[in-house]
Amino acid sequence: MNKISIVIPVLNESATIKDLLFHLIDNASLNSISEITVVDGGSTDGTQEIVKSLDLNIVLLTSEKGRAKQMNLGAKKARGNILYFLHADSFPPNRYDKYILDEVKKGNKAGCFRMQFDSNHWWLRLASWLTQFSWRACRGGDQSQFITRQLFDDIGGYDESFIIYEDNILINELYARNLFVVINKKIRTSARLYKKYGVWKIQYHFWTIYVKKWFGASGDEMLAYYKKHIC
């Protein structure tokens, strides 16, 4: 029987982690879920304490900082044959487990949901609308990622040399193998970075990072750009 292991990498996510964990439990059949694992990369805002305080049987792991490392650790400890990687500020649709299992039964070994930002800004609404299409340029980690364990292991997991853009490196590999499907149901994700720094500033720098990778930039080069201009 197919089982889904949910892996959530976190770093200072006290504002959303409780709501997300309840959301995941309330919107799925627990018979489909092997476990929900939160992998903390060194939070200092009480994220771990919140997870520990919830009577939800959540697996809590600690890891070196870096989403790729955190997600690989969560995958290593997972027991399910389907891995579902989820950002802490992204809330999948009701019955998300059924949609994922249906795709795997159809032979689709990896994919994501289409996305909807929690913002009425016209550009973010347009960007959200475009995620329903299968174009590679419309993909990103905020849309979440399901992948069979066998395929994940065949690829070698997330590339830990990338501190940012690690989601896209895996997605690139899946597109190269023609193994990606977009589920036409909306995952709601936070536009907090856009709200904090401005839509056009963030969009410009994300596009720049995308182009830099296109021209062969290393993980260290992309991280240095991100730190200088965004974080």
Task: Give the domain tally.
Answer: 2
The biggest sheet amounts to: 8 strands, mixed
Q: Please mark out the parts with pLDDT under 50 across 5 or more consecutive residues, or reply none.
A: none
CATH-derived topology of the largest domain: Spore Coat Polysaccharide Biosynthesis Protein SpsA, Chain A
Amount of helix? 40-55%
Strand content: 15-25%
Number of strands: 8
What's the level 1 CATH class of the largest domain? Alpha Beta
Instruction: Give the name of the CATH architecture of the largest domain.
Output: Alpha-Beta Complex
> Which value, in Å, is the CA radius of gyration?
17 Å
- How many distinct helices? 10
Distance between the termini: 43 Å
Structural class assignment? alpha/beta
Q: For the largest sheet, list the strands in their spatial order.
A: 3-2-1-4-7-6-8-5
What would your notes on this structure say?
With 231 residues, this protein is an alpha/beta fold. It folds into 2 domains: 4-190, Spore Coat Polysaccharide Biosynthesis Protein SpsA, Chain A (Alpha-Beta Complex); 194-231. The protein is 42% helix and 20% strand. The chain has 10 helices and 8 strands. Strands 3-2-1-4-7-6-8-5 form an 8-stranded mixed beta sheet, with helices on both faces. Strand 1, helix 1 (17-26) and strand 2 (33-40) form a beta-alpha-beta unit. It starts with a strand and ends with a helix.
Chart the SSEs and their pairings.
Elements: E1 4-10, H1 17-26, E2 33-40, H2 47-53, E3 59-62, H3 67-77, E4 82-85, E5 90-91, H4 96-105, E6 110-117, H5 122-130, E7 145-148, H6 149-155, H7 166-176, E8 181-189, H8 192-197, H9 199-214, H10 219-229
Parallel strand pairs: 1-2, 1-4, 2-3, 6-8
Antiparallel strand pairs: 4-7, 5-8, 6-7
Helix pairs in contact: 9-10
